[in-house]
Structure formats: structure tokens, C-alpha cells
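Each lists chain and fold; for instance:
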Amino acid sequence: MRARSLLEVNEESAVRLPYEVEDPHAERSVLSQSKQSAGRRLSTITIDQAIAGASNVLIAILAARALGVAAFGLFGIVFIVYVTAQGASRALIGEPLLVHPAEAEERPGDAIGTGAVLGVSLGGVVALAGAVAHVWDGRLGNALLVLAVCLPFLVLQDLGRYLGFATHRPSYSLVLDLVWLVLVVVAVGVLSVTDRSTLTWFIAVWGGSGALAGLLVLPQHRITRLRFSLSWLRETWAYSWRYLVSFTATQGAALVTSIGVGAVAGARALGAVRGAILLTRPVGMVQAASIAAGTAEISRLEPGSPQVRRHVNRTTALTTGLALANMVVLLFLPDVLGRLVLGATWEPTQRLLLPATVQIVMLGLICGTRAGLTGMRAVRKTVRIDVASTVIISASTVTGAVIDGALGAYWALVVGQAVCAVIWWSVYLTHDPHSEPQARTRVVPDGAAASAEPATEGSEPAERN
């Protein structure tokens, strides 16, 4: 039986792209349809992330109202643990999906199986942390143990969202978030009626609702039997570890910045910063989703083509425009609404809203270039920029806190983000997509599965026949 090269397999299975159409009238028609489809997908993703961002704010408000001050502080710790676990799973599995759309469509079971293994592993780590925390505070220990039980399914829920982005089915992601939102609102309502508003119960209904939503991922992708495997992680390891480095650097910078601002300016200043972050988080989540959507779109295009530039410009315009609209809304937000959301934290937070919203505009200017470079698989460059950005942002923010407390920290953060935006655009505009390392030639026998050998940057793993 004759072995076929990877090039032959790809030629047979390739989808005809707009720039390959010979008839100019047909080309314009295909390009128009492609733009409309991309626009619809981006709109759906934007709605999905708006719901996800609003859900996070709603959960924080419900927790603040249902729990006491001390219990709400412990809830914040549990939520940070969840966000950290979620970020690790995204780096190792979710984000590599975006640059491997063909494999995501053909073999979603591999990614889901790896996600299940990772979710169980992360759950075990959180359970161990819960057992240790139980010695210090029983409420925190119990809450972490409940989170550990739910975490494998929460990882599955988030992975399902990324599968929806990667496979051009953002409606799947929207369904997952809507189901979680409806379930958690109903469950919290039941808690308030039955007077069981303890931290453990709150984490149970929040995490349990997300876990139930996560189970929908299996029927969405026709998975009748879940196979636990690390095959997807092995196959995409050349990307995954770099995404993990970026995530670790970003989280480390956020932690160092928080500790630095708290130590220099005091707990009240840190609380004001957290309040500003809470108000801008929904827009930040939409920006993150726009990066994911742009990456998924660009990964299917010829690197360096006009279509890539259009997607980069479109993503930048969307995220920056949304940030400007957010600035107008927050700067003119009535005091009564501000106090409703933040309570006593509203007063110190209010003076930070201008630099906080300008900082979100700076992030919006970065989103398109990040999607472009990631979609063109320039992962080495994006990791270097992320590491450099963490140093710039951490140093500038702490320096600003020394000069003028929380307000100085935020304006210094704006300056740092502006410098980072210049770096991102400089790298993007000078990037040569053809300079990326090429994949090693692999041979795919007729009827055989593709090798699970990790792909190098600038390549995709071989497709199955």
C-alpha cells in the first residue's frame, strides 16, 4: 500500500480558500460570504462573552449579598483558585485548539479526553489544598473540597467553549454559558429561600451548576464514550508549554502587582483597584473572546494574506471601540448604581475609573495583533512579548503606587500597557510568516492514523485520513 506524504493528504482534504478562486466574480461572492460568516461568528462570540462576563459580575454580587464579609473574602480565594486552574487548562488544551481547527473538528474526542485527565488532576491538587486549608479555616477547606469535585466538569465546560470557537460553532459556547447562568441563578434563589447561605453551599450551587453545563459538551460533539488520554497534549506540546509559560508569567505579574500595591499603598487602595477591575472585567472578557475568535479565523488563512490583515484590523476596531464605549458608560455611571455593585468600595474606586478605562482601551489596541500573531503560529514571539510585558507592567505599576498610591499605580499601568501595545504592533508589522520553522516531513500510510508526534511552531499535526 503506497504511503502518502502529509502534503498530499492536506491537498486532498483542504478547503478551497477565497484567494484560490479563479473567477473574479465568484471570488468577490465567496469573500463577501466569508466576511458575513465571520461577522456572524464574531457577533455570537461577543454575545457569549458578554454573558460570561456579566455572569461573573453577577456571581460576585450575589456572593457579596448572600455571604458575610469574612465568608466573601474566602470566596475570593476560592474563585482565584478556580481562575488559576481554568487558565492552566486553557493554556495546555484550549488555546492550542484555536490553531489546530482541522484536528478540533475531526477529533474533538481527543481534546475532551485530555481535558478530562487534566481536570481530574487539577481537582486532585485542589483537594489536597483544601485538606491543608481545613487546618487553618474549616470553611475554606470545605469550599475547596467542593470545588475539587466540580473542577473536572468545569474544565470540560470551558473546553467546550474553546471547541465551539475553534470549530466555527460559537453557538455551542453560547449554550454552555446560558445553561450555567440559568442554573446558578435558580440555585442561588433556592439557597436564599431555604436560608442555607453558607460558603460551602454557595460554592456547591455555583460549581455544581457549571458542572452540569459541562456535561453538555459530550452530546454537543457526539461523544458517546469518554476516553481518558493525554494524546492531544502530546500532539500539541510544542504550543502548549509556551502558552503555559505566558499564562504563568501573566498570573505572576498580577500577583506581584497586587502584593506591591497592597504593601505600598495599603489595603484600602488595593480594594479600590479590585473594584475597578470588577467593573471593567466584562469588557476584558469580551476582548479575550475576540482574541480567541480572531485566532481561530486567522489560523485557517494563508499567513500574511490580505484576509489576515482584515481580521487583525477588525478585531482591533471591535475591542478598542467596545473599550471606548465602556469608558463612557463607567465615567457617567450614577453613584446609586456604583454603590449597588461595590457598596462602600465605590467611593475610592470612582477616582480610578478614568485610568482603568483608558487601560482597557490600551488592551483593545493589542487584541488584534495578538490574534494575528497567534493565528499565524508565531508562538515563540508571543511568549517573548508576554514575558517582557509582565516585567514592564509589574515595574511600572509598583513604581506608580510608590509615587501616588492606587491612582499613580493605575496611570503607570496605562503607560506600561501603551508601551506593550507599541511592542505588539512593531512585532506584528515586521513579522515574516515564512520565517517560521517548518514541520518535519511525516508520512501517513493509507488508512492509518496520523502520528502523535508534537508539531513544531509554524506547523499543524498531520490530519487523519
